[in-house]
Fold this sequence. Notes:
The chain is elongated, with a radius of gyration of 39 Å. The chain contains 11 helices and 8 strands. It is an alpha+beta fold.
Amino acid sequence: MNTIFDEFSNLPAVIGFIVQFTLVILISFILRWFWSNVLIKLARKTTTNLDRLIFEATNHAVQMAFIAAGLSFTWQMYGKSVVTYLGVFRWVDTGFILNFSNHVCFLFLTFALINLLWKIVFAAIDWYEKDVAAKTESTFDEKILFSFRKIIKATFIIFSVMIVADHFMWPISKVWAVAGIGSLAVALAAKDTFANMISGVIILFDRPFLIGDRVELADGTFGDVVDIGLRSTKILSFDNTIHIIPNAEISNQRITNHTYPDSQLKVALEIGVAYGSDMDMVKRILNEILSAHPLVLKEPQWGIWFTDFGDSSLNLFMRFWIRDYRNKFTVSDQINMEIKRRFEEESIEIPFPQHDVHIIPPKEQ
């Protein structure tokens, strides 16, 4: 009878556990109400959306973390007494119940805290993607965030497994060793893919070109960049063909970016006129043509130079700037057409290559 009486003496501890955990539940609902009706409403009035997104994302997670922490703390205080009280019932294995309950409290608290941290981190990432990256002209941020999300998710999973394995004292070192060997084999098999991905990250960080830039590669590929991915870059050529080039191949060759540092482009034209032409008149006509064209920039100032005496012509070099590189061929065509028209009006000949042959008659004997 004394033993049973001693076990029933733990009844106040059981009542204390029930009362304290009930208070934890009640306070968690008060906390959630305060979170929803005070903190979130205040956050909506601030100049940034970061605090609002974090409070909204963690609304339920904070309550669960508070309950998990309260349950864990309450069980540490009263758990042993509660299990001892249950020992009154002879069919209950008190040692198993106590051990099992400790594990459940640990897992509940661990995953509640990890879930809370998960919500905070990804709310911050969502804020950066919507409020910062979306306002930039480049898609660099979006592509990095896409990969960063996957890395963060993998990190959370690995971190959770390590915590649980350490708590239950699982021999996880052998698993990591096997995983390391497997990862090495995969890395060797997919080395080209990894090389392209690393080159893609370098291109995104170094920014030798951006989407919309007109580039020319050393292998002769010429066109506008339409997409920069982690594995490959897509270039749209003038014949409306997409060139999908691995990033490792691009990063190892010379690139000419016709758009950098801005969209202005220098156009160079060579013109030849016949010997005997009035060069002052030729220069005046060319200046008038450039001055009248609406797409030719006044600054930087264009230039016209009489460069050399050719075999069949007097050669001039003309250089001018246009605002948008996309108009290069259109402007060149219009300038050339106007030069031809004006030269014909002024009777200025544009010669074709020719050679004068002088036949010297033989001397009479």
